[in-house]
Each structure stands twice: as C-alpha cells, then as structure tokens.
What does this fold into?
Amino acid sequence: MKSEVLITMPIYAPVLAKLEQEYTLHKLWTAADAPKYLAEKCGSVRAVVTVGARGLPPGLMDALPRLELIACFGTPHGTIDIDAAGRRGIPITNTPDTIFGTVAELAAGMTVAIMRKIVEDDRFVRAGRWVGNAPPPGNTLIGKTCGVVGLGRIGRETATRLAAFGMQIEYHGPREKENATYRYHADLLGLARAADCLVVTCPETPQTRGLINGRVLEALGAEGFLVNVARGAIVDEAALLAALKEKRIAGAALDVFWDEPRVPAALMDLDNVVLLPHVGSTTKEIREERGRKLMANLHAHFAGKPLPNAI
It folds into this structure.
C-alpha cells in the first residue's frame, strides 16, 4: 500500500508527477474547504510536502495526527514552526542548492531590460507601432554606476555580471566588506545619489524592511532605476508606486512584491516597469535538483534510513 502524502501547493510538474506515481497524494490547493478536506481525507497522511517560501499554514500540523515528516521543496526561512515540529518529534528536510548565480543573472538581466527598455520595446513592436514611429531610446549600462544594496553572495555575483557590462560598482551594507574592491557607502542615501541603477540584493530583516523608502527614491532621482530581486518588503511599495507614476525615478524592475502573488493593478498599468513572478531561482536545473533531493528525503524516511537533508 502506498504511503499517504499531503502537498500544500503545486510544484515543478515532473516532480509532482513522481510524487503522484509513488504515493497516494492529497493536493491541499484543490480543496474548496481545507479544514474539512484535512479532517475527512488526510487522517492517514504521514508526510507533508511544501515549498520554502510558503511553508506550512498555521494549524496544519495539528490537523494531521499521523504526520511523521515535513519535506520542503526548497529551504524554509521562518515559514515553518520548527519548535512545534520538534515538540512532536517531526523532522524537517530541505533541498539545499546554490541559487546565488541564478538570482544574480536574473538581476543583471532585469537591469539590462529596464535600462535598455527591452520589454517596453517588445510591446512597441507587438502593438504595430514601429511603422512610421521610432521608440524612445534606452540607456546604456556602459560607464554607468550600479549601487548594490547588500554585498552578500548574490550581491557579489550580481556585481561581477554588471561590471562585465561596463558598469562601475559601488555598494551599501551594515558594514564595509574587508575583501571588496568596490567603493563602500555607509550612507544609503549617498549610494542612491551616486547610482544610475540601484539593485537590491540584501536579506529581509527587521532592519531592512522598508529600507528603500521615499527618501532613497528621491535620492536616486528622475534618471535612476531600481531593481529588486531580494524581498518585496524591503521596498516601500506605496512610495515606489508614487515615484514611478510621477516620474521621480526612471523605472523599476521587480521580481518580488509585498503581497505575492497579488501585484497592484496600478503597477501593471505603468510602462516604465518590468514585472516578474518571483523567478530568481526558477530554472529547470534548480527545480530538477530540488526534485531529486525531495524524493531522496521521502524515500529515506519511508525506508527508515537517515535523512539526507534534515534541518
């Protein structure tokens, strides 16, 4: 008899197919009434699969009396109650991977896209406006200054890629990096004034929440661009929306938002933005790697063997 597994939301389709093949799979997102579904259909569930960004909804562990394992596709960052799982003796696994380069290449691509108006020009051609018209020019990256907010692993990878485009790199963080060759700004406003494009790559913490506020955007100025591949809450969304509408900054490219997946309609109505659905680590290669590790964790658990990637 197949072991019963609950999955909280859709994941990479080939991995979902493997789960359906090997286990009796319960799909929580298909339930019109989740509490009723859990009570009536999931009493024998032994493992729950979720994703790192979403984690577990409050009360889900308590609704699964036979739960033995929480298997995460990705890595949870405060989205799973580890203490509650520990009290019940429920191990948690993740699928560690290296996403620094993939997020950085997206950040670089978004910088090129917004500064060179790639997405805007695509719409220009598709709308049939090229005949008899010329699109407004974009901005070269060559010789421009990129201000990196948070020179961690992703920030460094981003800096390397944008330097290859001819940008001068400067950065801000809580402290100067001893081995960094880029100019350091202790004052974020100073970095914003110096930058032609501000790229946000820092983690979300109580100190960074709302860090990119109206004052920073004013310092960035009407010719400046903002790129965010970190977390939505780091940027004051209302201040950003006002700055974009009033052309107090030139444009923004965003992979993350305050209330994902709900994106403000006012943002979608603007031409001077590039909007992506939080795909910094969404590559086929990373999804396949995570799938292999997820399945290995489940196989080991149900075989009574040590978990390869226990948190």
